[in-house]
Write a structure and sequence with these properties.
Radius of gyration: 20 Å
Number of strands: 14
Helix content: 25-40%
Distance between the termini: 17 Å
Number of helices: 14
Largest sheet: 7 strands, parallel
Shape: globular
Strand content: 15-25%
Oligomer: single chain
Bound molecules: (2S,4R)-4-hydroxy-1,1-dimethylpyrrolidinium-2-carboxylate, magnesium ion
Amino acid sequence: MKLAGINVYNIDVPSVLQYKLASATVTHLQSTVVELITDSGLVGFGETCPAGPVYQPQHMLGARAALQEIGPSLIGLDPRNIGQLNRAMNAALNGSRYAKAAIDIAGWDIAGKAYNRRVCDLIGGATGDTIPTYYSVTTASPDEMAREARERQQEGYARVQLKIGGRDVEEDIETLHKVKEAIKPGLRVAADANRSLTSRDAMFLSHRCRDISMVIEQPCNTVEEIAAVRHQLCHPVYMDELAEDVNSVIRAVSGGLVDGFGLKLTRLGGISALQIARDICEARSLPHTCDDSWGGDIIAAACVHVGATVAPSRFEGSWIAAHYIGRHFDEQNPVRIQGGRIGVPTGPGLGVTPDRNQLGSPIMSF
Ligand code: 0XW
Ligand code: MG
């Protein structure tokens, strides 16, 4: 089987709800969808959709420029040989893993369809038919965030992530105490600062919330700041934005820098890279998520397939952007949240196929 062509599409993903985090507010995004076309007639889809240009160094136009650079060198390769596909991408362009991720995901989609297996069956096997997600509570007043956390627990979520930072730390401390009062025991809580806290505020917050069971996600902007405060905090520390690639995961794990991760599919480089990070975490008993910063049903499906292969005791869930996008790329087989859980797609490959009307005409073809 040979790769005969590649199409790149734009899909608009307007946000129907406001999603505010410390560094940015997500409104209207444009997702980049890749279609790999084989000479056998099989096609596979991948996607990359950074959450705007500020959340992390990746951005939409950068992804498209990288695909322009990489695309031509892949024609003629066997897309089922995903190792070879990744080596060819690395030979054509240094870095830009978030763009390469779309090709990698599409390669796994084709491999699954060619072997008539779901992606999760090819990368370790699923733990069940559904997986947990977590609810990310956007920055709002302490009372509103507490109400949201309580309601999501009632709805069936086992974990909430509260956005903190980007405001007076006293307001975050008040929020965390109000959330504690509002929820019943059993709901796991992550306070995600998205890189925004000074080491001073990270220490204030952690000490004043000493009696609250929670993890602090990505408290500060750099590895050095996290290393400096880590052992002065009362809470476990998870790394998200700074887990930029497999090497930074290895470095953080071997240096004992963190207690877990928010692992992001496209930032790391796709399904291939995410499963390596999953296995590193397994070897060191570290909990983690399998999600992405944003994206439609293709990214959601890929996150869910990898999430389905993680040991449940260490799995922190797969967050997907479905609530915010308000419509699906594949209305027949949408990746949907129900009662805090997501069904693992059942069809071969990723198990989702974007609607041709939503794809429109390609913005790039090779
Ligand atoms: C909750 N997320 C996975 C989605 C937003 O883009 C931010 C992110 C996070 O954990 O930082
Ligand atoms: Mg995070």
